Structures are given as structure tokens and as C-alpha cells.
Amino acid sequence: MDEYVDILDENGNYTGKVLLKSEAHAKGLFHPTIHVWLYTTDGKVLLQKRSACKDTFPGYWDVSVAGHIGAGEASLSSALREVEEELGLQLSEKALEKTGICKSVTKHREDLIDCEFHHIYIGELNVPLSELKLQETEVDDVKLMDIDEFLSIVKDPPPSSLYVISCPDYYKSVFGAINKKLKQD
């Protein structure tokens, strides 16, 4: 689905411009997105298998929830909306904790360049997977994976790996925050 997004400069500052997501991708313009990582108290992380119909990384395992922040939308509102859309899970604002923002550039092809600033949130998953209602156009499946196993895979992915891989600093930030929460519980 095409939607309007705010255009950012290379430092993540709002430019005042608004374009369709497809235009931002075609021109390689920076725009804001959200990533939500849901974890369990027993040290697992929820991964989603991206729909086979997606333009980028179809059929790959990825962050629990990801999406574009609509033009003029706050990142937390977007995160809550995307969690509900993709997983059918309604969370309160206090259920998510923002851990940071990560700049990411991925050129998929000449007319599809993801130049994004990911607003990253973490939250505890406290419902069974059977209660999630997956958005068919976005998510083919979900699974829980031990955090150490996941980090091992993304650190040294095998050639046939079907996981979306981010930079090491991204994972250090996300899983450092999750591990800190797990130690508090």
C-alpha cells in the first residue's frame, strides 16, 4: 500500500517535504520507519516471515513488526498501529520502550532504494502465538527464537540464510536493551 511519508535529510531531520512512499523509494530519499521487537521473559524474540508478495526480502524472517511512519504521524503511534495491523495485537503506549534510531540504506534495485531512519521499540510479548492475527498481505508466519540463536545466525549467516540482516550496531543496541529488561524481571 502506498502512503505519504515525511522526507528527511541525511541526518534524520525533517525537511518539510511529503511524498508517496513509492516516490521516496524510487528517488532514494530518507524517511522514517518503525521497528518493534517483541520478546518473551524466557529469552526469546518474535520473528515474522515477510509475505512472499513483498517487494523487499519476500519470504525472509525479520523483525517482529516493521512499517513506515505516515506523514505527520508520531513514531510511537505508528509503532502501535503497525503492531495491531500486522499481528492483531493491541498494546498500550507504556507497553513499548523506544531504544533508539538507526540510519539504514539498502539498494534493492535501481528504482527501489530504502533510505530510512528506523525508530526502534521493544516490548514484552505476553500472549501465545495462537492469539496473533497475522495480516495476510504483510506476514506469512511468526515464530519465537532464542535470542542467542538468532544473534548467532545474523552474526555469521549461512549462504542460504533467509533472514534480513542489519548492521552489528543495530543488534547490539536492540538486544542490549532487551537483555537489560530481562535482567530487571
Structure at a glance:
It contains four helices and nine strands. With 185 residues, it is an alpha+beta fold. The protein has a single domain (4-184), classed as Nucleoside Triphosphate Pyrophosphohydrolase (Alpha-Beta Complex), CATH 3.90.79.10.
Which CATH architecture is right? Alpha-Beta Complex
Helix run count: 4
Determine the fraction of residues in helical runs and give it as a percent range: 10-25%
CATH topology tier name: Nucleoside Triphosphate Pyrophosphohydrolase
Mean pLDDT: 96
Write down the overall geometry: globular
Distance between the termini: 39 Å
Q: Helix/strand-derived class?
A: alpha+beta
Identify the CATH homologous superfamily. Nucleoside Triphosphate Pyrophosphohydrolase
Q: What's the domain count?
A: 1
| Unreliable residue runs | none
* Topology pattern, helix = H, strand = E: EEHEEEEHEEEHH
Compile the SSE list and pairings.
Elements: E1 4-8, E2 14-20, H1 21-27, E3 30-39, E4 44-50, E5 61-62, E6 65-68, H2 75-87, E7 96-109, E8 112-124, E9 139-146, H3 147-155, H4 168-184
Pfam families: NUDIX (PF00293)
Domain Nudix hydrolase: 29-171
GO molecular function: isopentenyl-diphosphate delta-isomerase activity
